[in-house]
Amino acid sequence: MSELHAVFGGTFDPVHFGHLRSAEALARLTGLHKVTLLPNNLPPHRPQPVASPAQRLAMLRCAIADLPLFDIDDRELHRDTPSWTVTTLQTIRAERGSQQPLAFIIGQDSLLSLNKWHRWQELMSLCHLLVCRRPGYCRQPESAELQHWISKHLTDDPRRLQQYPAGLICLADTPYYPVSATVIRQRLHTGQSCSDLLPLSVINYIRQAGLYRD
């Protein structure tokens, strides 16, 4: 049985405990051996980050310095075009070979709107989807086409993720961490403490760099 690795994309502006602890919970639930954090440069469906690519990369390095589960892939930060998940996963799949079990981590909100993603139906040929449940979201998407697609690939046995290189969707009962990067930036802007929301090493970097003050 091959080791299951996962890719976790995001702006990480800044990285916080909601990111890190959700991924750690996923690792415990599914047998993940490695989580690769993939910071976006120009996310196509979200507002552009406040911190620069170099600053967000530095914060990620601070956050995972003592966490061996994680590593970082900064390839998207070197692009000056929007970061499409499917094209990045194609590259990663080519590098890791056809048999490496590979997953992409998303939240339940993303799963319910996946049919709006670029070339979304190709994802199952490239990876599994590990989905962190989110309270307050309905269990089924509005799109019947998407619901059928999800049902076709859904598994309730995480062990199967290590038996196949791609093609499965696993809804994981991860704990809910109500942490928002937007709220963190607002609190930092007004001088409030964020010690319960993100690692101290990241807070120290933010202070030294003068981030999120304006």
UniProtKB/TrEMBL annotation:
Residues 7-187 form the Cytidyltransferase-like domain. CDD domains: NMNAT. It catalyses: nicotinate beta-D-ribonucleotide + ATP + H(+) = deamido-NAD(+) + diphosphate. The keyword Protein biosynthesis does not apply. Pathway: Cofactor biosynthesis; NAD(+) biosynthesis; deamido-NAD(+) from nicotinate D-ribonucleotide: step 1/1. GO terms for molecular function: nicotinate-nucleotide adenylyltransferase activity. Keywords: ATP-binding, NAD, Nucleotide-binding, Nucleotidyltransferase, Pyridine nucleotide biosynthesis, Transferase. It comes from the Bacteria. It is an enzyme of class 2 (transferase). Gene3D superfamilies: HUPs (3.40.50.620). Its EC number is 2.7.7.18. Pfam families: CTP_transf_like. Belongs to the NadD family. Catalyzes the reversible adenylation of nicotinate mononucleotide (NaMN) to nicotinic acid adenine dinucleotide (NaAD). This is Probable nicotinate-nucleotide adenylyltransferase. It comes from Tatumella punctata. The gene is nadD.
